Amino acid sequence: MSPSTRSETADPQPPGERGTMSPTLSGHLRRPPGPAGYPVVGCGPDLVRDLVGTFTRAWREYGDIVSFRLPGKRNLFLIVHPDHIKHVLDDRQPNYPKDPLSVGKFEPWVGQGLFTSNGDFHFRQRRLAQPAFKGSRISGFGPAMVEATSDLVRDWHGRATREETFDITPEMFRLALTIVMQTLFSTDVSNRAGELARAVRICNAYTNVRLQRFVELPQALPSKARSRFLRARATLDSFVYGLIAERRRDPAPPDDLLTRFLNAQDEQTGERMSDKQLRDEVVTMFLGGYETTALSLVWAFSLLSRHPEAERKVRSEVAEVCGDREPAASDLPRLRYLRAFYQEVLRLYPSVWTLSRSPLEDDEIGGYHIPAGSQVFISPYLMHRHPGFWENPEGFRPERFEKSATGGAPLYAYIPFSRGPRLCPGSSVAVLEAPLVIARMLQDYRLTLAGGHVCEPTSNVFLYPRAGMPMRLQHFKSTGEGAA
Hints:
Elements (H helix, E strand, L loop, with lengths): L3 E4 L27 E3 L6 H6 L1 H12 L2 E5 L5 E5 L2 H10 L8 H11 L8 H11 L5 H5 L2 H14 L1 H6 L2 E3 L1 H17 L7 H19 L12 H26 L7 H7 L11 H14 L2 H16 L1 H15 L13 H13 L6 E3 L5 E3 L2 E3 L4 E4 L1 H4 L43 H18 E5 L7 E4 L1 E4 L4 E6 L9
GO molecular function: heme binding; iron ion binding; oxidoreductase activity, acting on paired donors, with incorporation or reduction of molecular oxygen, reduced flavin or flavoprotein as one donor, and incorporation of one atom of oxygen
EC number: 1.14.14.1
Cofactor: heme
């Protein structure tokens, strides 16, 4: 049985299928075009098999608004245009909360934290967290970021001497987790970072399977994957609840994000956050506060290997600005090419490659009917490759960001950290951390992709390399090129 290729461009929404038409909408609005998929199951199997590839092919064939048929008369739409993205994330943001179907699949893992919450609760928690990501506090994170990277540099010395080839993905996870726990929670997890990072990856992998399953199975059903997930979650819960208990006992706690959450009071009731609420916020930082940066570092080192001239420019700039000393946050204004390089990494491989929302009321986007309760997906990964808004969109050109924070594209065409009221609060940490890590690593090492390795992205909650990122590690000076 093969899927139909008929484009569904003019199917009116059946009356009563998903709420009723808003009085402001025309009753003659069409359904966006898109693949019909298979009988009964629609596009579900294709989305499960290869979400990145299916979205990419559909966008290229049908345009900037695509509809996908799913079982049970569910509506899924993909939008890839800056005006339409602005409409969802900003202009009509209150009508587009987080998609409850996706949120429900994240909740067994992250609970009700900043990542999954909606409405007043979300923005209250966001106000509490925001001061931890501002101004001088952020630049004060620099020394801890560089110190953690230097520790990894020392750990890798023997591997570099042997010129080992290994997957750098878990190593970047371990490093980024150490950094986020030290900077946001004043906690040294260097001895447990590998264990905790593995637990996070197990939880994310389990959640990703659920996200791509278009027929949900009862959670009570036993399975090896679920048992593995529960053990990993228990490992993280034990650590996080222990951290909370220790902080509650501290007579002089540090002024960090955890302490701010501990001291926060509800404006109306005066109540403080429960241990469960605190746990959810800390785990949210596991999900979004370190894994996204770790993945961007993985893609960054792969791009340096694939583009030797860019690597040469970054090395030369770091050597000129920093000399023989370690890089510092105060160096970043002069590390202009490195910062532009990292922005190009985020353009080509945004860790959060899709965002999902669900309209509370019927809406119109680009002249098409978007029914209430639909799943609406925005893809930074595809938006950043739109030939209508990017010159040479598939090409690697860090120079495009040297004179423009958006690479010369419209504001909502460059969205590695989302936009609008739900702009990622930790974006300022990422754009400090990653360039410092890259600069410090390049002072000692060269990483070269294993021969024949294909850097293909796949969805695993975030944008992972499908087959990992095996790279050969060498001492930089041993390559005979010196430090300049």
